Amino acid sequence: MEKIKIKQVKSSIKRLQSQKRTLESLGLRGIGKEVSHESTPSILGMIEKVKHLVSVTKL
Predict the structure, then answer these.
(1) Which residues contact 27 (CB under 8 A, 6 or more apart)?
(2) Which domain holds residue 46?
């Protein structure tokens, strides 16, 4: 699988609870934090749900 790097670029304040939980499950806990994950369908689905809050780059 391909690795991707996810960076939180916007705040989760005043967002839906489901979006906050999605960010937490991705491992993002604040603006500027970065995590790397395998590019699996479940991870891509979570990214799609919060795409307005994160930026994604391929490794």
Answers:
(1) 33, 35, 37
(2) 3-58
| pTM summary value | 0.93
Backbone angles phi, psi at 57, to 5 degrees: -130, 150
Three-state secondary structure readout of the chain: CCEEEEEECCCCCCCCHHHHHHHHHHCCCCCCCEEEEECCHHHHHHHHHCCCCEEEEEC
Query: What φ, ψ does residue 36 adopt, rounded to 5°?
Result: -125, 140
Statement: residue 37 has pLDDT above 90: yes
Total tally of structural domains belonging to the chain: 1
> What is the amino acid identity at position 48?
E
